[in-house]
Amino acid sequence: MKPVPSQNLNQDQFNLVAAAIAALDTTYNPYSGYSVGAAVRTQTGKVFSASNVENAAYGSTICAERMAIGKANSHRERHIVALAVSSRPDIPNKRHDTAAPCGSCRQVIYEMSQVSRCDIEIILSDADKTRVFLTTIEELLPFAFGPKQLQIDISKFR
Ligand SMILES: [Zn+2]
Prior knowledge:
By secondary structure, the chain is α+β, with helices and mostly antiparallel strands.
């Protein structure tokens, strides 16, 4: 995956990345010092953002991406069309790679793509937008497992 110049983003993409970057300041990360902000845009044009929320029981930590999806869901906004993720390590002198969604988040994003019936666009960005990548959930999680494999009808959740 090659980075794209941030000036090539369209207005919707730029706004979504800005919301993800703004969410970095709300992170609760006493254990890793690693900040992640995420923002989703729904078909109605609404944007919901969130950050990672860590926990002393590490497995109870919730990623920014899933927090943002949950926030949209709590507003009955499940038709997600795009998601931006931004990351910023708060640890000095550490090399920083642009963060991509973890495996659990990819699975949850895929589920939402089945609800919205679209391949959700994913924008990855550093906090200063020096490295931006454009991808989709189908690219990040090919041959995914979802409601179809279980023959579950999710249409009532659309
Ligand atoms: Zn995750």
